[in-house]
Amino acid sequence: MNVTDCEKKLDELSFEEAMGLLENAIRGLERGDLGLEGSLEMFERGIELSNILKVKLQGAEQKISQLLRVDQELVEKPMEMAQENEK
Amino acid sequence: MEKLRGAFAMNLKDFETLTTRNLNAENKDGLSENRKIFSVHDITRIIKNTIEKDPILGNVYVKGEVSNFTFHSSGHMYFVLKSASATLKCVSFKHQNRKFKFKPGNGMKIVAGGNIGVYAMRGEYQLYVENMSSLGTGSLHEQFELLKLELAKEGLFEDIHKRELPVYPERIGIITGTNTAAYADIVNTLQRRYPCAELVVAPATVQGMQAEMSIIDSLALMNCKKDIDVIILGRGGGSLEDLWAFNLENVVRAVFNSKIPIITGIGHQTDFTLCDFVADMRAPTPTGAAELVAPDLGKLRESVKELENRIKISMAGFMERASLRTNRLSDNIFLKEPQRLLSQPRQTLDGLYGRLEREIYNIQQHNQKSLDERIAVLNSLSPSRILERGYSIVLTEGGQIIRHANEIELDDMVNIRFSSSEISARVTRRRNEN
């Protein structure tokens, strides 16, 4: 129960938050005052976080959208990269 | 009504007669006759033709300082060019304005090109402006310095207003012309360095008359979005006039007031605009802004890998320390030979036991001795021992010890006990010693 909650939360983290948590986990381990179980838990969490970070960093195609005002409302319209790059 | 009109016609007629008479009077003073009298319309038409057909006036460049500047809601601009001793009315129509690289302002020294024409309705001649340039950079610099001073006095450039840019922006706003090299530079740089961020573009005209409103509008659009982490305000290199929109007070204030942090990348390394001073960060070029706004993905991957290694190393370190500790414990002599744990207490116990035995023996010896002594005393006190020494005990027939002669009568029978025998006797005489 707790574990799934945690995973769900990890998935929703921003890159910055995940990075911060990973650094915390490392500091916790390096301090060395956690018990064996605590250390293992911290280690697993750290590895999971670094995997999430790596997925986030996998060079996906950059999304570009254009911000327009249409009938007094803000609209984000996807923009084509290639077309813009011809210039 | 008819009457009235008639009266008016009469009056006009009178007026003409009067005038003619006056002219005739002048005539007598030697002036030419048959003077033609023009209507205002006619004379204005002649003036207009004279001026507008003049080859010089049809294509002039006039330098002067702008004053009474009005930007009319119709899109036309009206102003006066003045020098120390003269003024020239100028008008610039909306369709011309689009071509201009900058918006004039009062006090600005410019060269305006166009033709001189006459506006009949007001009887005014004026310059119809077709092109315009600021006179050198001196005056723009002057304005720049003036506004800079004013804004600095207000504290707009101070460090306390500068916000930290997010380290890992997820949505990056871009305000620039979309068909420009600056746009391509920004997008390409971000695509190379940090493709995981989303780019949100609010296109803006970044030069010319429209630039002021366009940039302000794009900034407003961006600020309507809550999820944009940082804005790049960019424009490629150009002359001071080209970049002038970024020195306009309204634009500068809009940048200052943005709720979203802004990084500027305007012009080249050496170009500084007032927007640069109020932005949260200034980059020398659009590419530079894109580089500063997002981390490098390759380096980021490396640092995640580094962190991963660090956590592995520290976990391994922890395990090693733990196993070292276990080994140290299992090497402990008492764990290896637990009986050793008992040997010392046992020795102590043995010592104690010996002492105890000795004590008990001593006590016994002591007791035995005192017992013997007591037995001896006891023996010495025993009545039989006394009887052995020659004493005897006299008892009544009932067996009671007689301690005094009064206790018996004459002829009473008594028993006399010796140490190991007894006799019976009769009392024949009784005598008290006292």
Protein model, in words:
The complex is a heterodimer of chains A (87) and B (434). With 87 residues, chain A is of the alpha+beta class. In chain A, 63% of the residues lie in helices and 15% in strands. Chain A has helices at 2-12, 15-31, 36-57, 81-85, and strands at residues 64-70, 73-78. Chain A has a two-stranded antiparallel sheet. In chain A, a hairpin with a 2-residue loop joins strand 1 and strand 2 (73-78). In chain A, helix 2 (15-31) packs antiparallel against helix 3 (36-57). The longest helix of chain A has 22 residues, at 36-57. Chain A is elongated, with a radius of gyration of 20 Å. The model of chain A is unreliable at 1-5 and 82-87 (pLDDT under 50). By secondary structure, chain B is of the alpha/beta class. Chain B is 46% helix and 20% strand. In chain B, the strands form three sheets. Chain B has a five-stranded mixed beta barrel with strand order 1-2-3-5-4. A five-stranded parallel β-sheet of chain B has the order 7-6-8-9-10. In chain B, helix 5 runs parallel beside helix 9 and helix 6 packs parallel to helix 7. The longest helix of chain B is centred in the C-terminal third of the chain and has 44 residues, at 338-381. Residues 6-10 of chain B have low confidence and may be disordered. Chains A and B meet through helix 2, helix 3, strand 1 and helix 4 of A and helix 5, strand 7, helix 6 and helix 10 of B. Strand 1 of chain A pairs parallel with strand 7 of chain B, so a sheet runs across the interface.
Unreliable spans of chain B: 6-10
Task: Give the helix level of chain B as a range of percent.
Answer: 40-55%
Strand content of chain A: 5-15%
Quantity of strands of chain A, as a count: 2
**Structural class designation of chain B:** alpha/beta
Overall mean pLDDT of chain A stands at 75
Query: Mean pLDDT of chain B, rounded to whole units?
Result: 85
Q: Please tell me what the overall shape of chain A is.
A: elongated
The count of helical stretches of chain A stands at: 4
Span between termini of chain A: 54 Å
Strand order of the largest sheet of chain B: 1-2-3-5-4
